[in-house]
Design goal:
Shape: globular
Strand content: under 5%
Helix content: 40-55%
Number of helices: 3
Number of strands: 0
Distance between the termini: 26 Å
Structural class: mainly alpha
Radius of gyration: 13 Å
Oligomer: single chain
Length: 77
């Protein structure tokens, strides 16, 4: 059975909930600046979205800027 991330700022049933991603996102929120190195398709973008959604919820009116090195990655975001 697939479980999905539940967050008020993330569309329901849009991203699978994976424990390692949630743990990494929690570490980023706790410790601040962090570099995550992982192979392609392991969910680095989802981790960034979890962190961004949490900050947007905590700091009303704030903004998030995402930079990407390629057009396909920009479209993915």
């Amino acid at each position: 059975m697939v479980t999905y991330i539940e967050h008020p700022l993330i569309r329901p049933n849009s991203a699978e909930a994976r424990i390692y991603q949630q743990v990494l996102a929690a570490d980023v929120l706790k410790n601040g600046n962090t570099m995550i190195v992982a192979p392609t398709a392991l969910g680095k973008t989802i981790i960034a979205i979890l962190v961004a959604a949490d900050r947007l919820q905590k700091f009303k009116g704030s903004k998030i800027l995402i930079l990407a090195p390629s057009k396909p990655l920009t479209i993915q975001h």
